[in-house]
Each structure stands twice: as structure tokens, then as C-alpha cells.
Amino acid sequence: MPTSHSVDKNPEFARCLESNQIAALAPFHWLSLACKDIVRAPILSLVYGLVFSIIPAFIMWLVFQSGTHLVILPASVAFALIGPAFAAGLYDVAWELEKGHKPTLMHSLKSMFRNPAGEWGFAILLMVIMIVWMRLAALIHALYPNVPNPNFEQLSAFLALGSIVGGILMMAVFAISAFTPQIMMERRVDIMTAVVSSIHAVGTNVPAMIVWGLTIVTLVFIGFLTGAAGFIIIMPLLSYASWHGYIAIIKTKKPRGYE
Asked: What does pTM read for this prediction?
């Protein structure tokens, strides 16, 4: 049975946990393992999937109410990056399966309070970044040509600035959020240690993280194309895969494997 590393007793603030270097296509292996987790815990996966499907459904309702399609891209990317921060319950399910335990809803709900200061503080941080991102998107929208059927030349400034700002923010938030929630939930370290370790892990595995980031965005778009119904499966799948990615990359004192 794998060893649990639930509490990190090192009090050092903002230190960096060591990380492994993995193959570029490793994220696809995480997804295959995540599928097995869904099969092993179908009811809990469905419950959390239903909850998560409400969030993108609400985003789609906002798009409908705003009357513009221009908020779809920033909203989709923001949800793709912020969603995992609220997936502590699903991480707990995967962790319980790793330890050979039978996961329960009550245990997974309690996991959200294992490191409340860090976990909720991080969630608030990402929500603030999302709000800033959406406001920047609204400002950039001011560059959208005020003419019917604008051509590419007229759209060039709008598309260029939007792509640059969106790309920078997306890479920054992805690096911050890739492994921070998992680290804080399992090890109960301070938020800066988790964030610094996540950034370091992403920087150590750039090819794999590019593949993983593109996979997340692709699946999220598929979820929106299905009218948010696809998130019932997609969110548990991404959350479990993120846990396997965390296991594969963040080093522990003892060897750790979960297949």
C-alpha cells in the first residue's frame, strides 16, 4: 500500500519542492489512469461532475445575457484554469483510491478543509486574477472595429493585443495553478511553497506541460460545445489526471507509484 505523505512538517516558508522530469506525452497516460479512477468511483465522479457542469452552464447563460460571443474565449480559458482549484474533493477521491481505501463523499468534502487558509486563499487569488482577466478583455474589446463585417486588417490590432495579453496571463496562471491545490491539500504547506513548487515543476517539464495545457483547453471547449453536459465526465477526468500528474512530477522522500 502506498505511503501517505499528508503532512509536511518542514516549517520553512516559500521553499521549493523538488520535481521529476517526465516525458512530453505523459499527460495521456494520466488521462488513461483517470479513466480507471472514474470506473472505480463512478457515483462520486458523477456527483462532482454534475456540480461542475453547473459552473460552465452559468458561464454560457452569462454569454447569452450579454449578447456577445467575445467573452466565450476568456471565460473558457479562465474556467479551464480555475476549475482545478475547486477540485479538492475529486483529488481526495483519487488519493483514497491510491491508498487502497474506499472513497466517500463525506471524506472528500472534509478534504476541502485540510488546509483551509491555503486552499481557500488560493481559490480567492485565482478568482481575483480571473476578474482582472475579464476586465482586461473588456478593455481590449474597445479596439474591436465599430463597423459591420470587419476585415482582417481592421481586426489585426484587436487580435494581436488580445492574443498577447491572453497568452501571457494563461501561461502565468497555468504555471501557478498546475500543482498548487494538490500540494496544499496533501502536504498542508503554506501557499507560497505550493505556488513556487508548482511554477518550478512546470518550468522543469515544459514539453509535457504544453501538451497538458492544450489537452485541458481542448476538453473544456468540447465541454462547452456539448452545452456543458460534457463536463459531467470531463471535470472528474481532468481532476483525476491532475492528481496523477502531481504524483508523477512532485518528488517524495519514498518512491511512489499509483497505476
From this structure: 0.80
